[in-house]
User: Which sequence fits this backbone?
């Protein structure tokens, strides 16, 4: 899963990471729980713990909702580096650190321009 790879890469860079769907994977099969409860849990991490949110490209209503909430909280919105100058590695592994990348300066991510 791309989110898992990106989360581990960010953690390896020294960031503290919470990957919501990894934490609650399989909970949808538990009839005692509702999807809304998982979404509220995710929001609690954003509100009480996060300094930024990293949005991986792709369709995800849940992630879009988390980004909207993060904006309300004034958190930084990060996205994978779009840089292509250093080679194809950014394309294979969005968010990977590329020393010397002129776009992200080796961080692997940039601020979203929204």
Assistant:
């Amino acid at each position: 899963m791309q989110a898992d790879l990106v989360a581990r890469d960010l953690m390896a860079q020294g960031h503290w990471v919470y990957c919501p769907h990894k934490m609650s994977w399989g909970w949808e099969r538990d009839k005692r729980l509702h999807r809304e409860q998982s979404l509220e849990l995710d929001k609690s991490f954003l509100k009480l713990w996060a300094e930024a949110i990293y949005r991986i490209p792709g369709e995800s209503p849940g992630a879009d909702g988390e980004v909207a909430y993060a904006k309300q909280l004034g958190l930084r919105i990060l996205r994978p580096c779009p840089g292509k100058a250093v080679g194809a590695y950014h394309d294979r592994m969005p968010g990977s650190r590329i020393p010397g990348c002129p776009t992200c300066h080796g961080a692997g991510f940039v601020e979203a321009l929204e």
Summary: The longest helix spans residues 35-48. The beta strands are 52-54, 76-80, 109-111. The CA atoms of residues 6 and 41 lie 21 Å apart. Residues 84-94 have pLDDT under 50 and may be disordered.
